[in-house]
């Protein structure tokens, strides 16, 4: 099919893909009530939790990439800040508490409309453990990171930058994939 019917989320009438005045992107506009359907990227917040020279990783217990390692991260919720979201996800997945060192970087994935914000966090508790969506939590020295078992390119991006920064003595750079 080259045409998919999209119905208005306000009134249920048929929409039409059209140009909106003052807008460079075509939108689905309701033919009946003129409601404009905007589709925007979602924000994912996460943390690179570090302790001394090691990084805490979570083994995913859910698809996608079940069984592979990732950093605590997830979709940002309404009524929370980036920092709140990173803290919540870190607790939910690893019971890991941290002090924020800085915003470590961003990673855009335009093709699926996702933007990641990742903090560098200093772990402040010792009872981190596998929680929902996680089968195992482990501290990896940077020389022992399981590179062939990392869940997503974005996670690999932040991990490899962290390792490079450490070896260059520039721990606190900001990184972006500039997509
Ligand atoms: Zn409508």
| Percent helix range | 10-25%
Number of strands: 11
- The topology string of helices and strands comes to EEEEEEEHEEEHE
Radius of gyration, in Å, reads: 20 Å
Bound molecules: zinc ion
**What is the CA-CA span between the terminal residues?**
30 Å
Main sheet makeup: 8 strands, mixed
Q: Unreliable runs, pLDDT <50, ≥5 residues?
A: none
Number of helices: 2
Structural class: alpha+beta
The rough form would be described as: elongated
What is the percentage of strand-forming residues?
Answer: 35-45%
Global mean pLDDT? 95
Report on the structure:
The protein has 2 helices and 11 strands. With 179 residues, the protein is of the alpha+beta class. The strands form 2 sheets. Strands 4, 5, 6, 7, 8, 9, 10 and 11 form an 8-stranded mixed sheet that branches. A 3-stranded antiparallel sheet has the order 1-2-3, with no helix packed on it. The longest helix is centred in the last third of the chain and has 16 residues, at 153-168. It is elongated. The site of zinc ion has 8 residues, from loops.
């Amino acid at each position: 099919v080259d045409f998919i019917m999209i119905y208005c989320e306000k009134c249920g009438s048929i929409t039409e893909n059209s140009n909106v005045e003052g807008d460079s992107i075509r939108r689905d506009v309701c033919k009946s009530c003129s409601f404009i359907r905007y589709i925007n990227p979602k924000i994912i917040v996460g943390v690179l939790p570090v302790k001394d020279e090691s990084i805490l990783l979570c083994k995913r217990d859910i698809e996608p990439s079940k069984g592979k390692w990732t950093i605590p991260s997830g979709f940002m919720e309404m009524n929370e800040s980036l920092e709140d979201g990173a803290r919540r996800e870190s607790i939910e997945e690893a019971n890991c508490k941290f002090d924020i060192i800085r915003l470590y970087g961003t990673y855009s994935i335009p093709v699926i409309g996702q933007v990641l914000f990742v903090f560098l966090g200093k772990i402040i508790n010792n009872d981190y453990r596998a929680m929902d969506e996680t089968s195992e939590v482990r501290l990896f020295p940077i020389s022992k990171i399981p590179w062939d078992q990392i869940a997503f390119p974005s996670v690999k991006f932040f991990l490899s930058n962290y390792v490079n920064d450490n070896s260059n003595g520039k721990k606190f750079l900001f990184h972006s994939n500039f997509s």
